[in-house]
Design brief:
This protein is mainly alpha-helical. The protein is built from eight helices and two strands, in the order ααααααβααβ. The protein has a two-stranded parallel ribbon with strand order 1-2. Helix 7 runs antiparallel to helix 8. The chain starts with a helix and ends in a 5-residue tail after the last strand.
Length: about 180
């Protein structure tokens, strides 16, 4: 995605935040010209609370990047059960990766990566430790958010589901929530 699509995304978000819908020109019929649909809606929400389109975009991307760094650490320690120093090293590598340049360029990959990482965390938990309704629900919700953020998120989530089915030997069985 080059600079022109990023500016277009901000334009759609600005018009959405102002109440005109997803339009290129105010007064025209709404269109979905933003491939990164959920990303655009999230930017519009930040614009609505008073940020400029550029600041909204950068704030969202930076926050997603920081959350993903924390998620990588926590997933390493809790789900993969690696040593804390190893999880810290993985988080540190991500923190200093090229993702920082995405913030400067207003490129939304860290937002997509955060939702994909959350989906993968749920998938890993189900594959390695079995499923319960919370992890299965989390997988479904984060798969939806991943797919709404970028179209290829649908394929990515389906491949994760195939991995779950492969590892678990068929449809995962969820224990229902206990009453009370």
């Amino acid at each position: 995605m080059g600079i022109i699509p990023i500016l277009a995304l901000m334009r759609y978000a600005q018009h959405l935040a102002e109440g005109h819908g997803i339009v290129w020109n105010i007064g025209e019929k709404p269109v979905d010209g933003a491939t990164d649909f959920l990303f655009m809606v999230m930017i519009a929400a930040l614009i609505k609370i008073g940020l400029t389109p550029e600041n909204a975009t950068r704030t969202l991307i930076f926050a997603a990047h920081l959350l993903n760094v924390a998620l990588i650490y926590l997933a390493g320690v809790t789900v993969l059960r690696v040593a804390r120093w190893a999880a810290l090293l993985a988080g540190f590598c991500l923190a200093l990766s090229v993702a920082v340049l995405y913030v400067v360029a207003c490129f939304g990959v860290p937002v997509f990566a955060l939702f994909a990482s959350l989906t993968w965390l749920c998938a890993l938990r189900i594959m390695l430790h079995g499923s319960n309704w919370r992890w299965a629900t989390g997988f479904g919700i984060f798969s939806l958010l991943t797919g709404l953020t970028r179209p290829e998120g649908v394929l990515l989530s389906l491949l994760m589901l195939v991995g779950i089915l492969w590892v678990r030997g068929g449809a995962p069985r969820c224990s229902p929530p206990s009453p009370g």
